[in-house]
Specification:
alpha+beta; Beta-Lactamase; Helix Hairpins; Heat Shock Protein 90; six-stranded antiparallel β-sheet; 7 helices; 21% strand; rod-shaped
Amino acid sequence: MRYVAILPSVAMIVMTIIMLVLIRILSNAAVEYDIKQELTKAIATNSKYVNVQNGQLEILDDFTYKSDSVYFLLLKRNGKVLEGNYPAKGLANTHIMTNISRSVVCDGEKYYVRDVRVGKSTTGGIILRGIVNRADAYSSYRTIEMVSYLSIIGVFCGILLCEIFLAKRISVELKSMRKTAESIGSDLDMSKRMEPDNRFSEIAVLAEANNRMLDRIEQNFRQQEQFTSDVAHELRTPVAVVMAQCQYAKEQINTEEEYKEALDVIYRQSKKISTIITQLLNFSRLDQGTMQVQKENLDLGEIVRSICEDQQEKVGKKVTIVTNLEEVFTTGDISLISIVIQNLISNAVKFSHDKGIVEVETGIKEDQVFVSVRDYGIGIEEEELEHIFQRFYKCDKSRNIEGFGLGLPLSMKIAQKHGGTITVSSEVGKGSMFTLLLPS
């Protein structure tokens, strides 16, 4: 946290130093330009009061030899002083250069000099020279410069104090968020959340994003716990039956017929275990992306017709499967798509009443093909619809019906793997309709 506060401060210091240097450079340039402009104006004004008539120098009463910080001298073309005095003796050696403002260093001080011709005579005319000592002229500008420096330093100090204050406030919130994260990591209490005081919107947004992540982690954590519990629950019964039959066969069975009955029970329970393990492995492979999906062109209507015929033969007259199949095509893995259709139809048969009807339809809806399976059985409670695609979830009314609660979740996973989905609508006592949607 300290580095978070220090880095902006260092940046501010560097920026302030750069600004001060720039102000120094720019102010010096501006002052020099201003002094030369004022020197030019002063010479132009004072030159009006000097005349040369018939080679004779005439100086009017309004002529001044010093105005503010400007010294004025009248020179011959050879540099001899006619009127006025130099502010420093060394300046007498300065060459005459008319109409040019230039700087001259004399005795360690900087002067600005400008020469202007004011008349002509047999000796070459008269030169009006203006001289300004930079130190004298600069004194009036120095106050402005110092005020600028002090203003920048004051603003910097104010910003720095605000920055330190805000950094401390931000640091407090970030430390609180860090403690919450560390507490969750050490205590494994997934119910804790970060609670910012909302004084800084950016931190509040960060806390909300972290809380959403924690919500998802907690949900996954609970689902993992529930998944482990459900797997143990589903496997416990068939394993217990197998163990009981083995114990019974070992200690009490004496006839061949009893051995066959025990083996039949063990086989059925082992088959249930194998089915659960196979579906769980399919889930795992789909989740991890390790299951190879062999996509090919599929005649969806033909696949549905074949599965319906097999299912009808299996259930006999208990349920009648009615089909309305259009010729529709899609791409996908035929074995996986067949699992989905098989699950939907077998579920519809399972939850139908005796002598009930299951309607199966294929067709095209916008840019998708669909397989809808409708039954007129017990239906599903509205509050349970959002859970039916969760692993091992069973509706209350179907608790006593054979199944593991893996068929629909696996079917949804396969549909999503193919870029599709499964929708459901249901009404208690009137039945349900599941629709498989796939890209056309």
